[in-house]
Specification:
single chain, alpha/beta, 7-stranded mixed beta sheet, 6-stranded mixed barrel, 34 helices, 42 strands, 30% helix, TAT-variant-translocated molybdopterin oxidoreductase, TAT_var_transloc_signal_dom, 4Fe4S_Fe-S-bd
Length: 1019
Amino acid sequence: MASNKKYWKSVEELKGSSIVETLSKNEFVEEIPTDEFLGDKDTLENSSTSRRDFLKYIGFTTAAASLAACEGPVRKSIPYVVKPNDYIPGVADWYASSMADGFDFANVLVKTREGRPIQIMPNKEANGTTSARVQASVLSLYDEKLRLKEPTKGGETITWADADAAIAAKLNDLKSSGKSVILLTGTLASPSTEKIIEEFIVANPNAKHVVYDAVSESGATDAMMAMYGKRALPNYHLDKAKTIVSFGADFLGDFHGGFEKQYVNGRKPETGSMSYHVQFESNMSLTGANSDKRVVVKPSDQVFALINLYNAITGSNISSKSTPVDADVKVMAAELKKAGSKGVVLTGMNDKNAQLVAFAINEALGSEIFDTTNTLNIRQGNDSEVNQLIADMNSGKVGGLLTYNVNPIYSLAKTEDFVKGLGKVSLKVALSTENNETVDAMEFALPTPHFLESWGDTHFDQATYGLSQPTIQPLFNTRQIQDTLLKWSGNSTKYYDYLKSFATENILSGSSWNKALHNGFYKLEVIETVEFETEVNVADAANALSNSAKKATGFELTLYTKTGLGDGKQANNPWLQEFPDPLTRVSWDNYLTMSMADANELGFENPVRDNGAIDGNYAKITLNGKSVTLPVIIQPGQAKGSFGLSLGYGRTFGLKEEMQVGVNAYPLYANSNNVQFGVAIEKVAGNHEFACPQVQKTIAGRHDILKVASLKEYKTIDPKDHHHGWNKPAYVSYDHQEVEANTIDIWDEHNRELGHHFNLSIDLTSCTGCGACVIACHAENNVPVVGKKEVRVGRDMHWLRIDRYYSSEVETREDAKELGLSRGETYRALETEAENPEVTFQPMMCQHCNHAPCETVCPVAATSHGRQGQNQMAYNRCVGTRYCANNCPYRVRRFNWFNYANNDEFDFNMNNEYGKMVLNPDVTVRSRGVMEKCSMCIQMTQATILKAKREGRAVNTDEFETACSSACTTGSLVFGDVNNKEDEVTSLVEDKRAYNVLDYLQTKPNVIYQVKIKNTNEA
C-alpha cells in the first residue's frame, strides 16, 4: 500500500542527492538579491546613518509604497452610444461552437466578455472534452505576431478582388492546359466544406483534394478501408471494457484524439469493478502512467509480442519470435479470452499491418468495445496520396497547389523534395490563418479567420453533428476558405447561407436550425449496417509486420506528440510552451528520453544545480542520413535500447524569439512512421539548461501525500484499520497515548454552517494528469507567463500544478539496511525501480485551509479566511514579505518577482494590445512584489451567487464551479458547497476514500483527495 512506499519526483531524489535534501529545506531556491538594494559592504560600513534615521526612512518608504499601491492608473473607457439589447456590461456570454484545426477536434463552449472570447470549456451536453491545447487555443486567436492580416502576392499587399481575379484566371489556364490543381488541407471533418470542395472540383475537373496530417494515423484508416471498406478510424467504447491491452497506443493522449472520458467511466471503484488495463510500451506515456500494469518493451519486441498475442488467442502459428515479455503476453491472452466481448486490443503503431493484426484480434474476441459503425472522422490524412503529390510535383504534372492551414515545409520528412517540386508549380496559393514556412514559399498568401471568428460544421463521429459560430468580429482582413472556394466555383452564395441550407436539408431532419446552433450540436441516429469485410489475409499482414521488425538494428526511436504542444500548430502560444510536460515536468523544450541503464552506459546525466535547476548533456542522433543534436532527459520507465522524441518543436519562422525552442524532429519521421529503427547516437559537447520545476516544488520528507490502494484492498479491508487500513488517519501522541490527530487542535472552531462553504474534491483514480485544468486556470485567472529563464530558477507562476510521483517498494535507505542490503544492492534495487516505476498524478493548488498557517504570519493581513472557506488574498495590502510562502507546507504560493505585464523583458501575451484581449476583467492583473495563489475562483462563485440573487432563487445543486473543475474531462475535480447536502461534493467529502494531504498538520484543508485505486486484477 501507499504508506509502505517511497514516493519520488526525480532520479536525483531517488538517489538521495544532498542537493535535493538542501533544496527541500529552502524557502526559495533563489537567494534574495539584497546587495542590489542595500549597496556593497564598504558603503554600508562607512554610512553615518543612525539606526533611528534608518528606521524612520524605512517607515516613510513603506507608507509611501502603500499609498502608491492605492493609487492605480486611471484608464478611461468609451461607453456604447447605442447599447445592444441583449448585452449587459460585466456579464459573460457563452456560445456553443466546435474546434477543428486538423489535429484537435472538440465541441466547446466559448466565454466572451464585452465581445472578446476569453475562455474555452467543454460542451458537456455534446459529450465534448477539452485538452490543454483546446483550452489554450483562445490565446492563439490574439496572436498578432503570427496571424496573417491582409492578402498578399509576392509579399506585397493586394485587395481580395485583385487576388480573386488573378487566381481565377490562372485556374482557367490550368484547366485548359490539363495540368492538375491540388487542394492540400488537413483533416476538415466538415460535411458542408467537403461538399463545397466537391463543387469546386466539378467546376475545375483537373482539381483534386489531398488530405495531409502532419502527425499521421494513415495506418489505421488504411487498415479500416482494407478490412471494412470504410476509410475512417475505429471507435473504442472503453467504458464498457473489462480488459484493455494496448501496444503503444497512448489513448489518454493523442491516439485517435483520446479516450480519457470513456476510460475513466469504466474505472469507478465504488461500482465494485474496474477495467483491467495493461500497457506494453517503450516510452513512458500518459496512458502507461495510468495503467494497472505497465510492461516495458522496446518497439521491435512490441511487434512480435502483438503477433504472439494473436497466435495465442486464435490458435494460429504465424511466424514470429520470442520476446522478453512473452510470459506477460500469455497471461493477457488468457485474460482477453476470459473477458471475451468485453476485451479489446489497441496498437499505436502507424502501420497498416500492425493495425490489421490488432483488428483481427478484436474480431476473434467478438469485441463490443471495438466499434466499426460509429466511426471517427478525424485524422483522415492519406500518406500514399501525399507521397504521390510530391512525386507529381517533381515530374511537372501539378500546375497549381492550394494549401489550407498546413505546413509541409516544416512537418514533412521529405521537405527537400517538396520544396524542389514546389518550384515547378506555376500557381502557388496559401490560405492560412497564420504565417509559416509554407505560406512564405507561396506566391499568394490569403488570410483565413481563426475558428472563433468563423462559421462552420463538424462531424467528428457518425453520431454527432457540430456547429461552429463566430464569437468575435474578425480581427483582420480575413475570409473563410468556404467563401473563397464558392467564389472560385462561380457560386455567389455566402457561406453562412450555404451552411444553414445544407444543415437544414441534409442533417437536421426538420429540427430547428436556431436550436441546433444554440446547443452547438445535433445528435444523429447511427444506423447499424452489415459490416463490409473483405478477405484480408491476416497471416500475410503479420508476416510483413514481422519481417520489418526483424530488420531492426541499433537503437530504436519512438516519435510522439506531447500533451502540451501536439503537432506544433500552436508553437507560438506561451501558455502551452510554459506548460510542464506531465511526465518529465519539463517546459519550453523537447529532448531525447533515455533509460537510466543506457544513460549510464553512454555517459549521459542530468545533474541538479544548487538552485534546483536541471542540466543535461547533448546527443547527436543519426537516422536515414539525417542528424539532429538535442539534449537528453533520463526518463524512468524508458525501455532499454530505445529513445523517445516529441514532434512539434523547433519552429522558427514567424515565431517570437522566446518561442523558438527545441529541435524539429519531423526530418526523422520517415514514411510517417512513429517507430524508427537503426538510430545511431553519440555524445557531443555542451551543457543544456532545462526549465523543470520537478525538484523545486518537492514536498520532501513528509508521508501521506499520496495514498494508493488496490481494488481488492478497497473491497475487503476497513480503510481506517489501525494496522492494515489503506486510508488510515494520522495519529499523534497525546497524554502518553496515540490518538487521531483530528481530535487534537490548538485552534478555536468557527461555525461554518451558515451560508455557503466551498470544498474541492480531487479523485486521484480518475485524474490522468492531462493538465487541461492548468491551462483553464491560466485563462480564468490571468496567470502570467514568465519564460524559460524564470521557470528554471523556480519562479513559475502556475496557481495549479500537476505533481507527478514515481513510487518504489524500498522506502528508505534505513529500510534497505534492515533488509540486509549492501550499498551496492540498495542502489541496484532503486535503479530497478527506476526501470519501470508506478506513477501517480496529484493536482496541487492552494488547499484553502480552515486553519491556514499562512494567515497567522502575514504582518499586514493581506491573506485572510472568508466565511465561505476560501483563503483570500488582498493584493493591494500585500507588501511581499513572503512569510506566507515560507509557512505553507504545500508550496503553492507564487511571488511576483517582476511586473510581467507591460514589460518588454516578458514579451508574451500581456505585453501587447491583442494579447491583453484574452484577460479576464473580473480578475486583477497582479503587480511586482505581490504574492498570489489559487483563489478557488472566487469571482466565479460570487457570479453564481449574484446570478441566483438576480433571478430571485436559491443556488441550484451543483451550480458552483471553478475553472479547473469545469475543464476536467474525466470529472476528477468536483467543486461545490458542502452546506448543500445535495451537492455531489458533500458526499465525496464523507466518502471512505477521502483524505487530506499532510492531515497530521491539522491545517484542515477545504481541498479533499480521494485515495487512488488500482486494479491489480486480484479482486
